[in-house]
Amino acid sequence: MTITSAPRSSAGHAGSVRIGLLGLGTVGGGVARLLLERGEAIAREVGRPIELRRVVVRDLTKARDVSVPDGILTDDPANILDDPEIDIVVEVMGGIHPTGDWLRQAIRAGKHVVTANKDLVATEGAELLRLAASHGVDIAYEASVGGGIPLIGVFRQDLAANEVQSLHAIINGTTNYILTRMAQDGADYAPALAEAQALGYAESDPTNDVEAIDATYKLAILASLAFRTHVPQPEIYREGITRLRADDFRAAHDLGYVIKLVAMARRHHRGLGEPDAIEVRVHPTLLPRDVLLAGVNGVYNAVHVKGDLVGDVLLYGRGAGSAPTSSAVVADIIDIALNLNAGIANRVPFKVAGDLPRLPIAEVETRYYVRLWVADQPGVLAQIAQAFGDHGISIASCIQKETSGAPEGSAELVIVTHLAREAGMRAALDAFARMGAVREVANVLRIEAP
Ligand code: NAP
Ligand code: HSE
Asked: Is the pTM higher than 0.85?
């Protein structure tokens, strides 16, 4: 499928480009500030002024840390959606309802759209792109993934000659901030989350960050672009970071790994005549300390792509926060304004080459880290090795440390496996649950080496 259209706009448009801004929070405030404070430089770039015509918020009484010109703040979206003079609607309010309906209304009225809303792009993006194409307007969504890091343009255009083999990404600033603070400073989970919220990185409901829902939206967008297919967000396998404990960070460190929330997608070439499949998953992952992504800390995000021509590419930068995200939003505004000048739209259509089936999680092969509490008795290790062996899993290393805080008669085992199938691992874990000697499976994490 190719979504494309004839251009609607006419070249040589005079006067300013008029913006209607939906939202004046963390990102919207940054966008307004940038448009107002760097107006002259942006006008030089575009060849004409960009005018902030209207700003819609929910609560007009709220104190703002950005001051917008008198009379432009409103709580009525009709002031943007029904204003025929507004050229570009910039949506930085978030959510799917009523946002999707408002953007459809804007598109039908012939307005171009810039959005930072990954939830909406991941769930309704294909429909919005089709609608925009049929009305000859653009939708730009660079800020929806990776904050200020150029990603969408890279996948849409710069890597277009490649067959992408895999991508591994750290694409949630909040969780990376929390995991970095826990790993490097021994911080507890709750204060690290509170810091990320205070810094404006977290979503209004941090569940979306810590349960990795936010990362699945972003992975759905990136994987759809990278593999030229439609990856539905609900089909992405997901585990959040809330089960991680200080003991996992200690054990991972001792083994030479770091723990990151990794979003990954990988192409599987199958037999002759069979379509390729892709695996798409987001979960806490052990990365060897010497791989590129392992050094991505704090609010920084990075995407490591392997293309068949280009080889390895690492895109790295600030993945959240007001200034980096508004950098991407304003770049999209400038891009659309330049298209308006040239009288074009939809120059780079979103192309779907075919529907690549998703590999079920049970068929995924990876290495595993398993931390167990077992009865400290003769023969227990042999029982565990037997259960793994019964399900085709080979142990690469097993460490038992004498731990001062261990419950009486218990020992902690940290086991690393060779490559194993997820289905085999789940069957082995079921066997452990029936084994009296296994007191607790404290954590099971997958190991990747992108
Ligand atoms: P935010 O701080 O919560 O701001 C949301 C803004 O939208 C507020 O000004 C709010 O008005 C307004 N708003 C929300 N619902 C509204 C409604 N129904 N009618 C009118 N106005 C409404 O959110 P944010 O962090 O800036 O995020 C905005 C979008 O950018 C989201 O899609 C988010 O996923 C995305 N994003 C955020 C970041 C980041 O670092 N924060 C990075 C990349 C992408 P009031 O101010 O009156 O409440
Ligand atoms: N909550 C998101 C994050 C904001 O922490 O990455 C950027 O999308």
From this structure: yes
